[in-house]
Amino acid sequence: MHNLLKSRKAQFYIISVVGIITILYATGKSLTESSIVDTSEIVLTNDFFVFNNIVEKTLATLNMVRSCEDLSFYLEEFKFFVTRELAPKYKVDYSYAILSCDDNSRRARVSFNITVSSIKSQITTSFTKNINW
Hints:
Blueprint: H1 2-35, H2 40-44, H3 47-63, H4 68-85, E1 91-102, E2 107-117, E3 122-132
Antiparallel strand pairs: 1-2, 2-3
Helix pairs in contact: 3-4
């Protein structure tokens, strides 16, 4: 009888600990979900952020180029991606011209005209970039 009483105390202790942990976890989880602020919507509505990101990723794309064939392929893929992904909120006019490209000297020169338009603004830039790979 004495062992049975100790056994029940141990079972009650384990059940109590599991219950307390469950309550603490549920309380913590409910508090953290309401305190997280979603800042992604603010960034996506910032026209200058989107525009600067397109220019920055254009330059990053150029840094990956290792041949004239890569240059044409990467720029077309990036143009397709940008115009498709931003289409619901922005009108993106992304044009480029490969002024020169030589695999032997491993150099290229590309001219860009990028315009991002939304309901609130229109931002435009034109620049020429020399690439060495």
